[in-house]
Amino acid sequence: MPATVAAAWLLPMMPSLEPKKRNEPPDLLGQDFLVLGHLLLTLATFVEASGAVGAATPLMAGELLKLLQVDRIARHKEAFVRRCVICAAGKVLAALAPSTLQVLLVDGDTAIKSGVEWIERCIGEMARHDTDEECRILAIGCLQLLASLAQNSFARLSSVDDSMHSSLNRMLTL
User: Fold this and answer.
1) What's the pTM value of the predicted model, to 2 decimals?
2) What angle do CA 172, 173, 174 make, to 5 degrees?
């Protein structure tokens, strides 16, 4: 089954990867932008598939967020690539459990922290100003996912605080 999925993803792109000149690599930021978009989505799918509890998930998520922040990728002239950037950011957010995100942000994981700040700033800008309507709609969804994740993280923090207070109160009454 995985081979079928891989073939369905890879084979349609292969003709567009053939170099126009001998020994010339694909132009992912130019004419081969479809490959770039699919690559971003595939990397995000790997992060998502690693699961919210996978030990490597935060590392992969941080590295992918760093890639998505590259200006020539995030602000690509092709709407397809910008859509893929937004979807990839959403997949990264979906892959991080609220508790994991909370720990990473509190402990100062710089890749995740700067990635979340970038989502707020850049994807927020896309939601307001992108020329492509689908990009604006996807960006709003990504920001809603971030807000939901933040709310769940905050609720979890509050419940931890409440249970700590209860434990302390029980200890004080003993």
Assistant:
1) 0.76
2) 95
